[in-house]
Amino acid sequence: MNPDQMTPAPIHREGSPEFIPDPCTLVIFGASGDLTKRKLIPALFSLFQQGLLPKTFSVVGFARTPMSHEAFRKRFPVQINSEFDPEWRSFSDRLFYFSGDFKEENDFRNLSQFLEGKEKLPAFSSNLLFYLATPPSVYPKIIENLERAGLSGKQRESKGGARIIIEKPFGRDLKSAASLNRLSGQAFHENQIFRIDHYLGKETVQNILALRFANGIFEPIWNRQYIDHVQITVAEGLGIEGRGAYYEEAGALRDVVQNHMLQLLTLVAMEPPVALDADAIRDEKVKVWRAIRPIQPNEVNQYTVRGQYGPGPFHGQEIKGYRQEEKVHPNSTVETYVAVQFFIDNWRWSQVPFYLRTGKRLPRRVTEVAIQFKRAPHLLFRRFSDHTQQPNLLLLRIQPDEGISLQFEAKHPGPGIQLKSETLDFRFNPRAVVNKDSAYERLLLDAMRGDQTLFTRRDGIEEAWTLIDPIIEGWEKDPPKDLPNYKAETWGPRAADGLLSKNGHQWRQL
Ligand code: BG6
Asked: Are strands 312-314 and 309-310 parallel, antiparallel or unpaired?
């Protein structure tokens, strides 16, 4: 039978009743923290306003600070917490608070009783979804205590079910990530574990797959024959925003490269999946990670550059350098900037450099993937035009100014044959991406629906750390002596240019 004539498997499209998740009670550990306030509750409220939450839905915030349900409801940003907004009122009636210590087994038993006691209320469900939004150091304790209190996914299979969302950072090296995987794997089945990376929830990130695999024209040229190199940039104007203690333990490599940037890289580099389902896609992503040539500790000076911002003017204001930030060691050698060159050793990408750079306090916020094609093989117009013929560039603009553009050479109107670089430009409908936080909406909804496509699988997390560990090892053996080495509002340390120029490349001017 012609495959086109086969009946397609039913899929639950947005807007169909099946798209709404099953009844669910979401328990957030770390409910008094920043993530809950800035991202999770606003995302849930927005889903509620769009009618995308199940009718039976409630949130239980779990944290140490004693607080009433009412006080918990009042914690959320003024713009959504208007007592006069009837929608907020009916949503916030579903928010509850439970005060407990992550380290106390007994508090988890009490939580279990609390949840059981509430099951008769119309907003409560026995189908539980846990969200670990605490500092990562307490994740293991929480998972252990969930199991001791009979709340793990494996224990609740016949009692309504339980899943768990684990926030990044997932471990701080391969060893700790593997141990967290083991621990969570004892309490939950892999299909109950959702390792979140909010980049995967971004519309423009998901669009990379649509661009590549819903169009016929890109695939034939998406390889080493036609692509010269790829540049992935995650530039931020912001500094560390009061997160000194966290950042001192993390640094840019762990904070952004290990997760967001390696995710972007795999979406660009993966083979077409055999189906659009969680495992088919994640199989292909894991293959890319496995094919990336690890940078050995003794190669870090050849393939990586570290940087740290110093004090100085930033958009007209004097700002502190990283070392002057609160809870940062005055001689800290933690990197706020990193540039890396990777190679993917497979047939598609052999010898094509993938350059990644990320940094804090750069001149502006921009995340993009630039696919730089090879030059035209013969410069036919050279005699007629003094414009230097540029190679084609496909730009995937992740944020802001979300869109896709293709740079090409064209004739400048007029006598003679003068060439000029022009751009075909597509911009996303601003209404579709206006909500910066829609990534959390999408991912929370998917976790409630049990769809793991946009979450990292156990093997993926470990493969990604396998690439990061040797870089850290090399860096630790050879601490940098020149920090801070870039001024705020500049594009990072000079050495980052050298990483590309030795291959005859240069960073895109943003
Ligand atoms: C987070 C990092 O995961 O991603 C932050 O911890 C970073 O340091 C942030 O600022 C960037 O996310 P976004 O969505 O603002 O690009």
From this structure: unpaired
